[in-house]
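Hi Y.,

Following your request, here is the sequence exactly as I used it, all 524 residues.
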Amino acid sequence: MHWVDVYAEQLLGRGKKHFVESGTSISGEPHLGSAEDLIISDGIAKAIIEKGGECKAIWAMDDLDGLRKIPKQLPKEFEDYLGQPAFKLPCPDGCCASFADHFTRPFLENLARIDVKPEPVSVAKMYQDGKYDNVVRIAMDRAAEITAIIKEVSGSDRGDDWLPFFPICENCGRILTTQAYAWDGQRISYRCKGGIAGKNFIKGCGHEGAVGIRQGKLPWRVEWASRWSHLGVTFEPMGKDLMASGGTYETGKAICERIFNSPAPLAVPYEWIVIEGGKRLGKSAGRILTIGELIDIATPEIARYFFFRSKPTSHKDIDFGLGITKLAEEYEIAERTYFGQDMGLPEKEIEDVKRNYTASQISGIPERLSQVSYSHLISTVQVTNDWDHILEKLARTDDISGMTQAEEQRLKVKVEAVKTWLATHAPEDMKFQLQAEHPEIEISAEEKAILAKLLGKLEKAEWTAEKLHDSIHTTAVESGIKAGAMFNLMYRIFLNRTKGPRLGYLLASLDREFVVERVRHFST
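Below is the corresponding structure, written out as tokens. Let me know if you'd prefer a different format.
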């Protein structure tokens, strides 16, 4: 059984109605990893609904969190805002109503492109509107018990005078620099004495004052537990680091159950996404990868497939170069498997592969198989950029007859994705310019003889990528040379270079007469 169905059935065993919450700190542009828990949530929620249950999803925008450091994509002058909550910060480019709007709006718009549409909720507004009043009062009244739970579960000793609240300083506007020291049942007294943010110390302004419970926030572990209780969250995906022994989830679970008298949600742990070299995605890297960028180069369905093709706890790495072509090919195998083509997969994997495909669809499951491979399009769009000519060339090699409007639209999206990939992430040896005239290259007598053998095969071959590839490979074997040398020769006469895209797809994108004439010319 596919993992989305395993979680869905486990949750339905606890009840019919469910609530999933995901949260993201708004400290810059959300990267691809920020989308992971939202997409996992969406898959499980849809499975619950398919099985007759109900599920609501929200995205908690943690815009009350203080700015801890300045990501490289933010201007240097934002150092003046260190320690201030995100909802108070200005738009870095002056184009949006606020810092939070600048980064959350495009993130949500791109998620909607893959049919992930949680209800966005501002955490700052929840506090300001009084929706957290009750849980904040409980936390403050039972601060000693919370302190004891944190020490018991995590081993961290906050001290006897610790209060679980970060006021926003009335003088400097910072939230990471304040320390609460007294609670009279209505207001919280504090000192702005400075605080640690990551590895950095942020200096406080020295102000002392008192604020109400709507002018600040609970510490993260306490707030997480209070949110579960307040909203009635039944499950939540979370990074595996949060589920370490004595970590955030265990602490939050104990606080939720013992302080707020609510059951903790089912935790759905997931692996981090890593990029080339095993680096974890992060906002401080300067050049970040986003869900929108993945959709642009892979299509919405293939982007969703990236998240559903393996269990959340499985290793996930992403390579926007050649890795995209491999991801697309894997998706295409899943699509053909769903439509009954024998792809040689082990019997035990077939049902999960089909489910990977159905979970990846955006606008319902297509009625029939209508597929042109990503690899084929890499060659086709470099031969011609005109849509009508693209269709004309594909008609010679693929079954695109009788395409519905929806099928043609999906093909257009895939073509545009390939074009974007070529322009932004494709390795140089995948890009080419077809030599319209015979390139001025040296061809040995042995190479001419080999091309003469290939010529006869090309004149008769079925004009498909697979058959053309086989003809070239067979010629190499018959001629006693390595396949790599044969492909190198073909790239030279067509592209005037020694490497290129998949040769079968390249030749299939060209007219037979053009290919035969070029090979004949260099064989004599």
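The domain at 372-524 is CATH 1.10.10.350 (Arc Repressor Mutant, subunit A).

Thanks again,
Q.
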